[in-house]
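Working notes for the structural subgroup meeting. M.R. asked for a predicted model of this chain before we commit to crystallization trials. I am recording the input and output together here so anyone reviewing the notebook later can reproduce the run.

Input as submitted:
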Amino acid sequence: MESEIQHLHSKKHFYSKVLRIGLPMAFAQLMTSLLSLIDTFMVSGLGDTAVAAVGVSVSFMFLLIMMEFGFFSGLSIFFAQYWGSKDIKNIHKVFIIAAFIGTILTSLFFVLGFFFTDTVISVFNNSGDAENKAILLSYGRSYLKIASFSYFTMSITFLIGMLMRSVERVVYPQLVNIFAVLLNTLLNYLLIHGNLGFPELGVQGAAIATLISSFIGMTLLVGYVLISKEEVFKIRFRLYKDITKEFVHKIFRKALPVAINETIWGLGMTFYLIAYGFISTSSIASIHITNQVMGLVWAVNAGISGASAIMLGNKLGENQLDLAKKWGNWFMKLIFVAGLVFGVSLFIASDYIASVFDESTDVAKDVSMILKVFAFYVPIKFNNAYHIIGSLRSGGDTKYALFAEVGPLWLVGVPLAFILAINTELPLYVIVAIVNIEEIMKLLLLIPRFFTYKWVKNLT
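Returned structure, recorded in C-alpha cell form:
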C-alpha cells in the first residue's frame, strides 16, 4: 500500500499519465484545427474575399462551439469526478442533461445560419468597399447555408468525445478525428477546384466537404457507443425521470459559470472579428488565417490543460486533495515551459507560415506580423488557459474563473479593438498587440487565485 502511494506521488507516474491522457486530447485539437486550416488553405486560391467569407461563417460556428464547449466542459467536471467515484448512474444523468442543452443550442444556431444567412454575414461585413461586401456576402451565403447542417453532427461528436475523454477512453475518438480530417482534405481537393472530374464548387465545395466528413465522424462515434460493452457508454435515457430539481441545481451551479465563461469569451472573439471588419475585407482574411494557424499551437495547450482537468478532477473526486494540489503545481510548471517553447518556435516560423497561403502581399505581411505578436503572448495565454480550463475548473472554482476571463476581455480587449479599428490608422498587427494586453491582466488575476487553493474541493 505504501509503495502504491509513493508511486502515485512520483513525477514519473504523473508525466506518463499526462502523456496518456493529454497526447490524444492534443491530437484531437490538432485534427480539429487542421480541418479548419485545410479549408482555409484550399479556399485561399480563390482570393482574399473567399477566405474572409469562410472566416465569417466559421466564426459564427465558433460561437456555437464555444457555447457547447462551455456547457459540456462544465458538465464534464462531474463526468470526471463521478468517474473517480465510479458513480455510473449520475454520469448518465449528466449526459442526458448535456444532450438536451446541445439540442437546443444547435437548433437555434441552425435556424439563424440557414434562414437568416444574410443577416449573420452582414454583421461582420463592415468595410467601406461596396463591391467586396457584395462578393463576401455571396461567398458567405454559399458556404453557411450548407455548413449549418454540420452543426448537428459536430454537436453529437463533441458530446460523445467529451464523455469518452472524461472517463479516460481517449484513443478511439482521436482515430475518428484523424479519419475525418483526411476525408475532409480529400473532399476539399475534389470539390473546391474540381479535380479528378468532380464539379468545381468553390467555397460551396468546402462546406459540402465539412458536412460529409463531420457526418461520417459522428456516425463512427455513435456506432462505438452503441456496440460498446462498457456500462458507462450504455446511456440509460430512461433515467431522465430520476433527474430532480436538486440534482439540476447542483450541476448547474458549477457548470453554468463555465458555460457563461466560454460563451462570453467566444462572443468576445466574434466581436474582435467584427471590429477588424471595419478596417477592410483583407483584415478579416488575415485574422481568420492567423486564428487557424494558432489553432495548431493551441493543440498543445488543449492537451495539457484538458489532461489537468481530468486528472485533477479524478483525484479530487477520490478525495486525494493533497495529491491534486501537488499535481496542480506540476502542471503549472509544465504549461509554462510548453508555452515558452512554442512561443519561440512560432516567432521563428511566422514568415514561412505566412508564405504558404496563396494570398495578397498585404495579407501575407499581416499574417506574419500577427503571428509574431501572438508568439510573445503564447506563454501567457497557455498559463491563463490552464487555470481557467484546468485547475480552477476541476475543483468547481468556476465563478472566479468566469470573472477573470470575462472582465479583462470585455472591459479592456473588446472596447480597445473597436476604438482602434474605427478611429485610428494603426496597422492591424499593432492593434492586435495592444488589444491582447487583456491577457496580461488575466494572468495577474489567475495566478494569485491558484495559490489560495480554493479550487481543491471534492464536489461529489
